[in-house]
Specification:
single chain; alpha/beta; seven-stranded mixed β-sheet; two-stranded parallel sheet; 3 helices; 9 strands; 28% strand
Length: 166
């Protein structure tokens, strides 16, 4: 009789495990998991930061631009105006005008520390500039900025001509 009860308990445990597994799978569809459609992602390789009359402009190599009175505001506007999801984790280069040097420290929150930083002057095709910068890497990154001996190179842009000045 003792063996029968033990065997019955074992069957009940197995049935209970299966019932709980079925309930868990059924409820998984109701959980608030959200995904991002890959087609709506906008990976960024170059981020261009400018300031004019106290207003920041943050642009990308894909042509998306956001404006704000500070960097968080400009990046927020950038994400709101984008036709999909802006993916800043892929940024390799940050180009800044000399007026924006004081905001480099705030970029750590939004952009990965290994991102290379450059000062820039001029206008050009930002999609093409990434290929140029790829062949001319900078030792100045968000992580190394401020360390002794780290200098930010200056990129002179004139239409399709690019030149680095130390």
């Amino acid at each position: 009789m003792v063996c029968t009860i033990a065997t019955g308990d074992s069957r009940m445990k197995k049935i209970l495990v299966w019932v709980l597994a079925i309930i868990a799978v059924s409820c998984a569809d109701m959980l608030p998991f959200t995904g991002t459609d890959v087609a709506k992602l906008h990976p960024i390789e170059v981020l261009i930061i400018e300031r004019d009359n106290g207003i920041f402009s943050v642009s990308t190599d894909s042509g998306i631009t956001g404006f704000g009175t500070d960097i968080p505001g400009a990046l927020s506007d950038l994400k709101l105006t984008a036709p999909g999801e802006v993916f800043l984790d892929t940024a390799n280069y940050v180009l800044l005008t000399s007026e924006c040097m004081d905001v480099i420290g705030t970029l750590f929150v939004y952009i990965r520390p290994a991102c290379q930083i450059y000062l820039f002057e001029g206008r050009g095709d930002w999609e093409k500039v990434s290929k140029y910068l790829e062949s001319h890497p900078s030792e100045a990154t968000l992580f190394t900025y401020g360390r002794e001996g780290t200098q930010i190179p200056k990129l002179i842009v004139k239409e399709d001509e690019y030149r680095l000045v130390e």
